[in-house]
Amino acid sequence: MVPVRMITLRQYSRLNKRAVLFVALSVGILSACATVEKAEIGDNLSNIGSKIGSGAKSGFSKLTSFAPGNSSGNVGDAAEVAGLYPRGQLPHTLMRKPVAEGRLSSGFGYRLNPKGVRIPRKHKGIDYAAPRGTAIYAAATGVVDKIYVSKSYGNYIRIKHENNFHTAYAHMNAFADDLAEGDKVARGQIIGQVGDTGKSSGPHLHFELIHRGKFIDPLFELVPGGVVAATE
């Protein structure tokens, strides 16, 4: 029998023990079913059973524990990317907390989906919970290359920066007046306000750091011998 990691799941859910067990079993079954699809026709029941077990373990392994505000161990490609550029350039000069106030409520990496079916999904950025209307700043100097309304991200802005980096800001309550695509913005310039537009569980800023199409943890921190996640 595949062990159910109950401690990990409790950190993400207020459900009772029976409901948490159901979520865990569902994750394992979904992953196992995906594995069985790869079974060859000639496989015997023993081999298929082994593949089901491997698939279930894979599903549970994605439920790595992350306490609110902790992205430790999920630096993505930060180690590879950050080492390409000197300390005086992006991503090292990035404003890690581009909001006037608020707390880090969700880190980078796998988590249980906060909306809809509670299954593991990769969180491509970090979240700062803050009161609606709180000022949002450009995390670095650049050019606005996208500003629009999305079904999932709500009011969304993406800014292009040096060294092929982009930053993205989602679920905004409003954009700064007269801000448009092609506008230059300075580090620390107000670009909008915190909100809960799109698919959101409450007022917060969803903040992403992107390099050549890859999402990396904005809270990485270089240390001798590698990269770790910073706290904020």
Please explain how this structure is put together.
The protein has 232 residues and is of the alpha+beta class. It contains 4 helices and 14 strands. The strands form 3 sheets. Strands 1, 4, 5, 6, 7, 8, 9, 10, 11 and 12 form a 10-stranded antiparallel β-sheet that branches. Helix 2 (17-36) crosses helix 3 (45-61). Mean pLDDT is 74; it is low at 1-39 and 62-75.
Show the helix and strand layout.
Blueprint: H1 6-10, H2 17-36, H3 45-61, H4 78-82, E1 103-106, E2 109-112, E3 120-123, E4 126-129, E5 135-137, E6 142-150, E7 154-160, E8 165-175, E9 184-185, E10 190-194, E11 204-211, E12 214-216, E13 220-223, E14 226-229
Antiparallel strand pairs: 1-4, 2-3, 4-11, 5-10, 6-7, 6-9, 7-8, 8-10, 8-11, 11-12, 13-14
Helix pairs in contact: 2-3
Helix content: 10-25%
What is the total domain count?
Answer: 2
Number of helices: 4
Helix/strand class: alpha+beta
Q: Give the oligomer, counting copies of the same chain as homo and different chains as hetero.
A: single chain
Q: CATH homologous superfamily name of the largest domain?
A: Glucose Permease (Domain IIA)
**What overall geometry do the principal axes of the alpha carbons give?**
globular
In CATH, the topology of the largest domain is named Glucose Permease (Domain IIA)
Number of strands: 14
CATH class category name of the largest domain: Mainly Beta
* Order of secondary-structure elements: HHHHEEEEEEEEEEEEEE
What is the mean predicted local confidence, pLDDT? 74
CATH architectural arrangement of the largest domain: Distorted Sandwich
* SS strand fraction: 25-35%
Which stretches are low in confidence, meaning pLDDT under 50 for 5 or more residues running?
1-39, 62-75
Task: Give the termini distance in whole angstroms.
Answer: 40 Å
CA-based gyration radius = 20 Å
For the biggest sheet, the summary is:
10 strands, antiparallel
